[in-house]
């Protein structure tokens, strides 16, 4: 079965694997288009509250197991939840029977009247996607931000109008399950080894990411990171117009940084966008800034809208998010999303001066030795809390940090940071640990940090 249009779904037998938000949404959409839909989820029925809602619409739902006889030669299409591995017994059987296995992203591209800007990469997707959406919105246009960022893409695609644009954050899990998906502008931020338990090999991971480009043509655009060798190696396979971005060197077409300033260049036309000193985003987020500039310029956004948003955008919540600057010039950043040492290393590299670091959380049994060198270079004072407080304090001692403190909670950590900080200091929450020892989520941890920062700003 070739799935090329909405009409192809009518009276087709389609299996949707996995309920949750995306499975429920796509089941409703396919049912609306006249498909014979069966939804299957391995969770027990009492863990599938969506079942009754779908059954009222006439959609069959099977919970508690994956019956192998659900897949046979009469099935036309399988739509899987992105997180379900390809080792699943039903997916393996579908592949053997040459039944297409897709994710809802594929269907979104069929039903959307709006063009799509697709963003993927190992790091920085959410910040870049959000930034692109904000710039397009400021330009007076009509972006719909969706996908892996939290809103089901197919649901938004169903309602999208021709004059709008879908700004879609896309994971490798979603892209692996695409066949004809074609974004008008495709942004690849970077590729690092990740999710290899799911993909089984780095080659499969790269192939999944590169599906972003495989259906583009000369009318479309590809935006690549010039400093990522894996991204550049894909150029020969890309048929669309290629634009680059770089934090280190000048590019012929795209955006780059030189002399502390950001430039846009398209052949012989070069425009200075703004200085790095004018924006809140730091470090690795500068790649996200450049990618957003290229994508929005290719979509036709004017420079003033780009400048306005970049000067005011404080980052996605909990991802090296600027919080505030006090009257005596102490600057606070919330990087609660940094739930492992590598993320904290990346955060520390964003700042030229040493910071007052607040870290700690769930003890997963790791040693934290990889933090020793980054601590030597980038940490002025260390404040720790949570299960790993003593471990991290010892790492700080080995790194030669003169003052390391253990406190009871994030509130006390902020209070201590205020007492230690001087004019021009940066206070950074970048825990290097998961939050579940003291919080329900990294979001809760970050919000409590920000509340404490505001509370003690004027002496508590």
Automatic annotation (TrEMBL):
Keyword field contains Cell division: yes
Q: Does the keyword Transmembrane helix apply?
A: no
Query: Could you tell me the EC number(s) of this protein?
Result: 6.3.2.9
Q: What is this protein called?
A: UDP-N-acetylmuramoylalanine--D-glutamate ligase
Q: Please name the source species.
A: Vulcanibacillus modesticaldus
The principal location of this protein is cytoplasm
Residues the entry annotates as binding ATP: 121-127
**Which controlled-vocabulary keywords does the entry list?**
ATP-binding, Cell cycle, Cell division, Cell shape, Cell wall biogenesis/degradation, Cytoplasm, Ligase, Nucleotide-binding, Peptidoglycan synthesis
User: What biological function has been recorded for the protein in this entry?
Assistant: Cell wall formation. Catalyzes the addition of glutamate to the nucleotide precursor UDP-N-acetylmuramoyl-L-alanine (UMA).
Q: Which reaction does it catalyse?
A: UDP-N-acetyl-alpha-D-muramoyl-L-alanine + D-glutamate + ATP = UDP-N-acetyl-alpha-D-muramoyl-L-alanyl-D-glutamate + ADP + phosphate + H(+)
UniProt enzyme class: ligase
Which InterPro entries does the protein's record reference?
Mur-like_cat_sf, Mur_ligase_C, Mur_ligase_C_dom_sf, Mur_ligase_cen, MurD
The record's Gene3D superfamilies line, in alphabetical order, gives:
Mur ligase, C-terminal domain, Mur-like, catalytic domain, NAD(P)-binding Rossmann-like Domain
| Pfam families reported for this sequence | Mur_ligase_C, Mur_ligase_M, MurD-like_N
